[in-house]
Design goal:
mainly beta, elongated, 114 residues, three-stranded antiparallel beta sheet, four-stranded antiparallel beta sheet, 56% strand
């Protein structure tokens, strides 16, 4: 996780690509359930994940400059490696891990000649 400086954290994310789909995994600790998660396909190749935590995380830093920050939300935008078909997208949330499966858009279509 990295702090954005804008009141939210960026979750750890892994993107895997297979021949037919793209699978995105996001680590969302302190998120209670799917009702606290928003997944949006902004364009055919960009995904935005936003989630609200059940409790805030406070980060205090002491030194030359005293600084304190509180985070209560995750947010990230992910550039996907290929265009996807939004109609077939599926997402599940289990044990703090969000899994989003996005079928790739057909890059070529075979046309039968009669």
């Amino acid at each position: 996780m990295s702090g954005s400086g804008q009141g939210y954290l960026e979750p750890l994310v892994e993107v895997k690509e297979t021949g037919k789909e793209i699978v995105v995994y996001a680590d969302l600790p302190f998120v209670d359930g799917p009702e606290n998660i928003s997944v949006e396909l902004l364009e055919d190749d960009e995904l935005e994940i936003t989630a609200t935590m059940r409790k805030s995380i406070r980060w205090d830093r002491w030194g030359a400059h005293q600084r304190s920050m509180t985070f209560s939300q995750y947010k990230t935008r992910i550039r996907l490696p290929a265009e996807v078909d939004a109609e077939g997208a599926k997402a599940t949330f289990k044990n703090g891990i969000l899994t989003v499966v996005l079928p790739k858009r057909a890059s070529k279509v075979r046309v039968n000649v009669e």
